[in-house]
Specification:
The protein is an alpha+beta fold. Strand 13 and strand 14 form a beta hairpin. It is globular.
Length: about 270
């Protein structure tokens, strides 16, 4: 099932391709023991609807967290950008360590919806999107769904000093989620592809792809570490890292269009403010 957040309600697209609005909030969904069962029960009293033309980000009160250096490509890029600061070995060590890198990414008001602009920092000159499969985790720590996330990153700020990571990652419109939430208790196949295309003035200036088979850590392990000595009354989202990094010569510009596709979730499209 695919769940879209509309202007006034949630709309579920069933396996039979029927769109149904349901009397449920995202907070109630994330707080439940079995979100999929709650949605199925709500469908019984739902009404026929249409998929929102411009869905909102599928977030209400959830925090957004992120995992870093989960792909070999990410480790290599982070080591390269930090070589002058002497921090490159940090990323090599965390890639090989049992404990993952987890960091806070965004509150709901900082998240851009599909079609809304994301931002690059005014005090940064080297910025990239990071396309990431994003886990939907309920208040009990159970992964119950997936969406697409864009973890906007200021590479020059993080590269200057790893301690600047929060400033490189957390600012207004530094994250985007959508276009919907895929409700599935089963893990996505390792062959699932994540693709990125960046367009400038209508023309592609970068494209890349990877698959979930390239991620080093299991999603269950990432979720377990996140919930260690930590509580999420409204559940949370966890971005799982990126395996697609543009070359060092590339940086985003105002007006660029970022397109991230992960089947069967869809495509998340955001412009750069």
């Amino acid at each position: 099932m695919l769940l879209y957040s509309g202007p006034e309600d949630l709309v579920v697209v069933t396996a039979a391709n029927h769109a149904v609005s349901i009397p449920l909030t995202l907070d109630a969904l994330f707080a439940s023991d079995d979100p999929s069962a709650v949605v199925r029960a709500a469908l019984a009293t739902g009404q026929a609807a249409q998929v929102p033309a411009r869905p909102r980000a599928p977030i209400q009160s959830q925090e957004v967290w992120a995992a870093g250096v989960t792909y070999l490509r990410s480790r290599t890029a982070r080591m390269e950008e930090s070589k002058d600061s002497g921090g490159g070995t940090f990323y090599d060590k965390v890639y090989l360590a049992d404990r993952p890198e987890l960091f806070f990414k965004s509150t709901p008001h900082r998240v851009a919806a599909p079609g809304e602009p994301v931002r690059i920092r005014r005090d940064s000159k080297w910025n990239v999107p990071e396309p990431e499969l994003t886990l939907a985790i309920n208040a009990r720590g159970r992964i119950f769904g997936y969406t697409i996330g864009n973890d906007m990153s200021s590479r020059d700020i993080e590269g200057e000093n790893p301690l600047y990571l929060p400033q490189a990652k957390v600012y207004d419109r530094s994250a985007a989620l959508g276009p919907c939430l895929l409700l599935s208790a089963a893990p996505l196949p390792a062959t699932t592809e994540i693709s990125l295309e960046i367009r400038r003035k209508g023309r592609p200036v970068f494209s890349g792809a990877t698959t979930l088979s390239q991620i080093k850590r299991s999603f269950l392990t990432l979720a377990e570490f996140l919930f260690r000595d930590n509580s999420f009354p409204h559940g949370c989202y966890l971005m799982t890292g990126t395996g697609i990094v543009p070359p060092d010569s590339f940086t985003l510009q105002s007006g660029d269009e970022i397109c991230i596709t992960i089947p069967p979730i869809g495509t998340l499209i955001n412009s750069v403010a």
